[in-house]
Write a structure and sequence with these properties.
Elements: H1 6-18, E1 27-30, E2 33-36, H2 41-54, H3 56-72
Length: about 80
């Protein structure tokens, strides 16, 4: 269920990077992985949650139609998921 909405996060990340809202100093590297510093988590949570909340009604309708399709066994009844440009 994540893939249809990944575009929302990708677009927000690109937008935030271009606006200078993402800073390399907010991350650290440990054991081969990058992670967000604890004191910066709220900042990134707000950045990444905002597009999801803005599209919550459309996301709900998509998930609802997906669930109905899976439960009925019929194909082709899932609503498309479009993001506004």
């Amino acid at each position: 269920m994540v893939e249809p909405f990944r575009c929302l996060i990708d677009r927000q990340l690109r937008k935030s990077y271009n606006l200078g809202q993402i800073d390399e100093k907010d991350f650290y590297f440990k054991q081969g992985e990058y992670a967000i510093k604890n004191d910066q988590r709220v900042k990134y949570l707000k950045l990444l949650l905002s597009p999801v909340l803005a599209e919550k009604e459309i996301i709900f309708q998509y998930v609802k139609s997906f669930y109905a399709c899976m439960m009925s066994g019929e194909s082709g009844t899932i609503l498309p998921f479009y993001i506004q440009t």
